[in-house]
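Dear Dr. H.,

I hope your travels went smoothly. While you were away I took the liberty of generating a structure for the chain from your last submission, since the lab meeting agenda had it listed for discussion. I wanted you to have the full record in hand beforehand rather than looking at slides cold. The sequence, exactly as received, is reproduced here:
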Amino acid sequence: MNIRKLINTVGVVFLTIPLSVSAIQSPSLSKNLPSNNSLVEQRKTPPTSGTDKIVKEPDIDPMFTGGTAAMHKFITSTLNYPQEAIEKNIEGLVVYTFVVEKDGTLSNFNLIHHADPLLDAEALRILKAMPPWRPAKYKGEAVRAEAYLPMYFKINKNARGAANNNTCAPGSSTAKTDLNILANEEILSIVDQMPQYPGGEEKLTEFLSKKIIYPTHALQNGIEGRILCSFIVAKDGTISNIEVLQSPDPELSHEAVRVLSLMPKWNPGINNGEKVNVKCVLPIDFKINETPIPPTTTDN
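The corresponding predicted structure, in token form, is as follows:
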């Protein structure tokens, strides 16, 4: 059995009032990012694939044209935090998946984590207003590929009193909830130096491989898929507010949360030379590469 884990730890796009916006960086945005010198070369239109299928693992992932910084600038200039949401102190995390077409346009928007209808609608409006992305490439050709972009809407606590409870819609499974850090601490998403598991991604992969126990029911029924989790790495490296944002199965959700709860302290994020609280997103892929185990029965 091979359980494949996708270890791209990413920050969340924070949309705040006053406007100080950062967008959640998804694996498709953080992986294979080109340097400034290579951006011009990569803007050349690649040959288009003849197939219309969505390629799950392209050679080069789709990317907002100009890179992450350009995407943040676009979101900052486009964001219109709903007035009603401001008045009602509504905050929360919104996550959409979408398809980046061969020509870079976005389609097939799918809401996978709901916060509030007002925030959901604003996040979708921003996505639909985006210019064409650089499409994914597979074997040198432009192909259709799926991406996701989480956006965290937060009202600046200096402008308005912090909420006493978490208004973000709960995921299917949570752990280590710390209401104090949510209400009283500043939580960033994109920082100068992102938090890191001790020893880096290789050690994180090793930790997950050793700790994850594939749920029996899911294994017997051939259930697999991606569990998208979020959590906060505090200034002292402790992990809190673990939440499942997307999951194909409750048992896989609980197992992902259980294992993430066992993680040791991380190396905290650094911004402007200081340790800060950072919200991260971590996808974990459960993959079975063998025939499912038949269920145990009482029949002789």
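Two observations you may find useful: The first helix runs from residue 27 to 30. The first strand starts at residue 10 and ends at 11.

With kind regards,
E. W.
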